[in-house]
Task: inverse folding
């Protein structure tokens, strides 16, 4: 299958904390399965950096496993304290929604809504946040 991409399409492969762009984005999509093995400070750094890459009124969506429905990461085994061992050898951290919401709000975002959907393996949530504007 051949996909035609727009002429200004670019793929970046680098550490997001070192990433800088000339034109700010209006939307960022964060996949929790890419964040779940970060420690607290790394998560804060990611969300703060994402905030700087968004335009005023920019939106950040976080694709998240719905932990309120006892969903597990694929091939995951619960180890306690919201930590799951994944058969591939890694670990996944899946805190409750309210904890994730609070963490993201501390990084300069305002919670808008969450939308539920179902994949073949787990119930999921799309958490939607808007960039908070400085009010000086």
Result:
């Amino acid at each position: 299958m051949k996909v035609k991409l727009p002429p200004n399409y670019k793929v970046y492969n680098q550490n997001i904390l070192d990433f800088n762009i000339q034109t700010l984005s209006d939307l960022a999509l964060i996949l929790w399965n890419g964040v779940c093995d970060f420690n607290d400070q790394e998560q804060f750094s990611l969300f703060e950096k994402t905030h700087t890459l968004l335009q005023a009124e920019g939106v950040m969506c976080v694709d998240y496993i719905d932990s309120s429905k006892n969903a597990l990461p694929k091939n995951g085994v619960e180890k306690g304290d919201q930590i799951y061992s994944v058969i591939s050898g890694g670990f996944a951290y899946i805190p409750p929604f309210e904890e994730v919401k609070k963490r993201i709000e501390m990084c300069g975002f305002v919670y808008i809504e969450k939308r539920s959907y179902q994949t073949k393996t787990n119930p999921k949530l799309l958490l939607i946040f808007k960039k908070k504007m400085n009010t000086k």
The chain has a mean pLDDT of 79. The chain has two helices and seven strands. Residues 72 and 122 are 7 Å apart (CA to CA).
